[in-house]
């Protein structure tokens, strides 16, 4: 995969410790980002390179996944988490919504999920029914969750979704495409998918698309079934074809270019399709053991 334009910075927070965990593009071209170091939802104007705080959510210390469920209505997950010690707090996972479709935004707490400690990736399964799928990383589960009723159920509980012994991150990113839920299993270093029935139950066994040999974070799907994945401590973006061929798109272990990349989102600028990349600034694994920076959003254009 050939990079046709260099990575360029969209916005960077001013302070070290700023950890961007997830990113999504609104239909108006603005970006929404969640932060793991604080329970805050931010809006970024990519053309102006400016950012503003939209809301700080209660009952949690960290935000993670975000997905648009209906037009300008987003599901967001959060939990209590100590980034300094990696301590988790079982039972602390919450699901929120941010309704930005009105003149005055409305933010709601929908439900606590008691059997959760690290709620992570979120993907829309059924917009009409308001149903999303949520990855629970510590216990290695995928939940089906209704933002309208708060009802939830476990629909994924396979061994490939679990973390390696002693680790805390199993299933991480999730995306729904053509009756499959695609997922990354971070510490097992696997990218795969599970076929789903109409009620989001597994319709068959897990299919492993690639064993990557490195940590995997969130990802996006592209035309032709190619996936682009963030690798967080490995400081690269990789691509995986439907056949499992792996290529490095950009970044380097010893570079800050996309250091600590956590998530990606597609967007358009001036009629051109761009890939936005969110980072934590290499906080989880400083470059060369000592170098890190504030979280940022960068963009690049790919020759697909």
From TrEMBL:
InterPro entries: 6-blade_b-propeller_TolB-like, Hetero-Diels-Alderase-like. It comes from the Eukaryota. This is SMP-30/Gluconolactonase/LRE-like region domain-containing protein. It comes from Lepidopterella palustris CBS 459.81. The lineage of its organism: Eukaryota, Fungi, Dikarya, Ascomycota, Pezizomycotina.
